[in-house]
Write a structure and sequence with these properties.
Tetracycline Repressor, domain 2; mainly alpha; about 80% helix; 2 domains; about 0% strand
């Protein structure tokens, strides 16, 4: 059983590397098999298609991001603290995982995301929607659709992660906290 999991992880990790390097269209199943050092049989035992593999890479990364975000909420009491924890965790994760971040960006801007943006993805974000709904009910933030707020938070944290990747000397906790104020002001109910 462990060997089976290890083989699947090898395929996922190899696919991630190749997708980031060569894109979804430029990466073939044969190249993933060769790069991962597995057999064709092992590949097709775990994944019936390249699309299924792409989706699995997405979900495996998303699971870790979700766990990090949930962990960051421990000890947060008020809405602003929760939003800062979620926002800053996305930035820190992006900086620590550049290839996975690149994959997630590619995926987010691909037809694969549109196909997946169904109940399966929405279910993954329920904990965020609960926080957003709590914020909307409390009248602390402007009343916004949870999907829109998720996209807005994602674009703000992505922009900050890009800025810090280009200007790593600017990174500090104080800088993050001050930068968060811009995002917070864009959603607060004044």
């Amino acid at each position: 059983m462990k060997e089976n999991i290890k083989c699947k992880e090898k395929i996922i990790n190899g696919a991630l590397e190749l997708f980031v390097e060569m894109g979804f269209d430029g990466t073939s199943i044969a190249s993933i098999v060769k790069y991962s050092g597995v057999s064709n049989g092992a590949m097709y035992h775990h994944f019936s298609s390249k699309e299924e593999l792409i989706n699995e890479v997405f979900f495996s990364i998303h699971k870790v991001v979700k766990e990090d975000m949930l962990g960051s909420l421990k000890g947060c009491i008020d809405i602003r603290e929760k939003f800062y924890a979620l926002w800053s965790t996305r930035i820190r994760w992006s900086l620590a995982n550049p290839k996975k971040k690149m994959f997630m960006e590619m995926f987010s801007n691909s037809p694969y995301m549109e196909k997946l943006w169904t109940q399966s993805v929405t279910d993954q974000f329920n904990f965020l929607c609960d926080i957003f709904d709590e914020a909307n009910r409390s009248d602390i933030i402007m009343d916004m659709d949870a999907d829109y707020l998720l996209c807005h938070m994602k674009s703000s944290s992505n922009g900050m992660a890009l800025y810090l990747r280009l200007h790593p000397k600017k990174y500090s906790e104080d800088f993050l906290k001050n930068s968060f104020k811009m995002f917070w002001r864009s959603i607060i109910n004044i």
